[in-house]
Amino acid sequence: MMKRSLLCALVLGLAATPAAAATLVKTYSYFAIRGSTLDEIQKQLSEHGPEVKTSGGSRHPGATQMSFTTRTSYAERSDSCRIVDANVTVKVKVILPRWRQPRKADPDVKLFWDTLSADIKRHEERHVEIAKNHARELEDALKATYPQKNCQIAREKAAEITAAILAKHDRAQVQFDRVESVNFESRIVRLMHYRLERIQNGQLPG
């Protein structure tokens, strides 16, 4: 799951600045869980996982917090104003679980955890990728705008474009979560079988 906060700074400039691609700033944090059985691990995830406000404050096994910052430069003439550069920075914090494995953990429990934790990380990294793709789309859309009569109208147009693309981003994130939740059980079972095969073939440590 994810949550988004929008920080939008429109910087008025008279000269063009060098073009830059969308910037991603990513950090990780971890929360510890314990348990020696699947039920105990599930209980720990439910009790200690990050709260996600977009899902009513419920806790999840992982989360990605995001903020978008848009910096836009303008060139003004006597009868027009246009966007000459736009840079979008996405700051993300990926929150993942870390299992404090008992010394004599059951192999089946370890197999399940290794499969689940890898899937949680993949899920959150996909949220990051969706955000980065929309940041690029936002940059391109802002740079492609036509000149406006004045910079006030140009700023309003930039704000309109930003709101539309970030709303599109939010819908894409929600749709991704919806599809993932429907396929969760079958995906985990399939991944466990695949991981077990790789262990048996010596491709992964047991």
Can you describe this structure?
- It is elongated, with a radius of gyration of 22 Å.
- It has helices spanning 38-48, 107-143, 151-182, 184-200; strands at residues 2-10, 23-33, 51-52, 58-59, 63-76, 81-99.
- The protein has 206 residues and is α/β, with parallel strands linked by helices.
- The strands form 2 sheets. A 4-stranded mixed beta sheet has the order 1-5-6-2.
- Strand 5 (63-76) and strand 6 (81-99) form a beta hairpin.
Q: Strand-and-helix sequence, N→C?
A: EEHEEEEHHH
> Globular, elongated, flat, extended or rod-shaped: what is the shape?
elongated
Question: Any idea what the radius of gyration is?
Answer: 22 Å
Portion in beta strands: 25-35%
Main beta sheet = 4 strands, mixed
Strand order in space, largest sheet: 1-5-6-2
Helix coverage percent: 40-55%
Count of alpha/pi helices: 4
Low-confidence segments, given as residue ranges, are: 1-20
Mean of all residue-level pLDDT scores: 83
Q: What is the SS-derived class?
A: alpha/beta
Q: Tell me the span between the first and last alpha carbons.
A: 30 Å
Task: Please report the total strand number as a whole number.
Answer: 6
